[in-house]
Amino acid sequence: MTEDDKIKKAAEELAKEAGGNPPEPAPEGTDVSMPQNEAEVQKYKPEPDKDGEIHTNHVGAEVKVEDGKATPTEETVKRAEALQATGDEVAKEQARDAEAASEGKKELAETSGADSQGETVENPSAKAVTDEDREAKIRRAQEARAARAAAAGGGAPAAEGAAAERPARAPRAEGAGERPARAPRAAKAEDGDAEPPKPKEPSKNQPLLDRIAAIVAESVGPEAVESATINEKGLEIPTLTVKGEQWFKTAETLKTHPETGMNYLRNLSGVDHETHLEVVYHLVSLTTKHEVCVKVKADREAPVVPSVTPLWSTANWNEREVFDLLGVDFPGHPDLRRIMMSDDWVGHPLRKDYEPLDPEV
Fold first, then answer.
1. Contact call for residues 228 and 240 (beta carbons, < 8 A)
2. Which site among 132, 205, 282, 287 is 20 to 30 Å from 230 CA-CA?
């Protein structure tokens, strides 16, 4: 067992004897090398024939036996004095903490009492600390600005301790006109200060759109396509707007022409634009993987669009849905009847001017 282990063991045993609490440090001026009472002397009774030898007492401290009495060795005395000094410092520190806590509570009570009576109690020490912190912050801010200015080459840093304040704005003279409006950015382009915006690059599907429009014009007629655009918000899909009376022949051309080969109808839907109705078709070529969107407008009062169910069987139920909910008639459909609402239902629920007979339904 080492000396530190012995001292630790002795401290644990003393704590047990004190009821689990560590022993209090001895008062100043006490000779810690001597037993504190007669009971401690009787705890160790060396044998007479072991005089002059070093032994360990019941608490693990080394003692020297002389004339039948046990006295601590010099090393034990030094360790005891070191422990005593440590205990004194700890006790003093605890006393200072307790006194500071007491003063803080007293000051808080005085301040709370003054506030409750509508008074304000200033704390001189707190005010001094606040001023000092403020000055330190100002100094650090000035140093940071000077460092940034030096790094950016913006001139010499501000003088140490000087208040680097922003100059006040000069007051506007009476009768002066309003501040002139900022010139538009386009003027800079005229002066050559800024580059003009770059022209937008054409879509990668533009050649496909042009070719499809040309095929329809050659096969059906140049008046069949009302417009041909690229849907920039919809994956840049080529989009055609075709006249209703020429839609079936256009659809047949898109499906059977070798360059288009739109042999799959992905989706068919109806749209109410309030001024007119519109049926939208999404066609796909499973061979070339090309896709095209076709829109066919219809009169709102008597909407009629030729059925394409004979070309794509997928259109069967989709056309029935548009007929049911929007009222578009599809001549050539093999079984055109309502698919969602009952046969005696009045009106078409997806029209924007639809008014139900029973608002609760």
1. yes
2. 287
